[in-house]
Amino acid sequence: MIQIYRLSALLYRWRVPLLPKLLYLLNRILFSLALPASVKVGKRVTFAYQGMAIVVHARAVIGDDVYIGPQVIIGGRSGEFEVPVIENGAFIGAGARVLGPVTVGRGATVAAGALVLQDVPSGVTVAGIPAKPIRASRGQPEARLQA
After folding, report:
1. In terms of DSSP bridges, do strands 67-68 and 61-62 run parallel, antiparallel, or are they unpaired?
2. Which terminus of the chain is more exposed, N or C, with fewer CB under 10 A?
3. Structural domain containing residue 90
4. Position 142 in a domain
5. pTM of whole model > 0.70?
6. Distance of CA 28 to the CA centre of its chain
């Protein structure tokens, strides 16, 4: 699954006309994963359950060492050009929605089923609809949670 994406992205960067789209469709059919070749995906990214029902916007950026659970949507919002940026070491739980011009900070956790519409600071755990901070990692001042 990730190998098919990486080949598709390489061909996309080399401006090969048809093969990246065909590989995208192969990923979509075999794994139910919508991961366009234009997405910037870092190293050691884990798509749970082989990317089952994950949808990623074509301009999204995903950093290194990120875990993305099944049925996650990382996408844009109507009227907004910018799309999500997921920084290194983030964890996105099953069924979470990360929408619009938001940044999920380094080492942040998005709980299962959360709807993220605002930036998530580094090392913070968010949950709920819409997502609100529920816990900071060690060393994070509790005042940061009052967002």
Report:
1. unpaired
2. C
3. 39-135
4. no
5. yes
6. 16
User: Domain count of the chain?
Assistant: 1
User: Does residue 101 lie in a domain region?
Assistant: yes
Query: Which CATH number fits the domain that encloses residue 52?
Result: 2.160.10.10
**Residue type at position 141:** P
**Percent share of the chain, pLDDT over 70:** 93
Residue 143's pLDDT is 42
Residue 127 makes CB contacts below 8 A (sequence gap 6+) with 110, 111, 113, 114, 134
Phi, psi of 6, rounded to the nearest 5 degrees:
-60, -40
Closest to 9 in 3D by CA, of 76, 47, 58: 58
| pLDDT, tens digit (0-9, with 9 covering 90-100), for 99-108 | 999 999 999 9
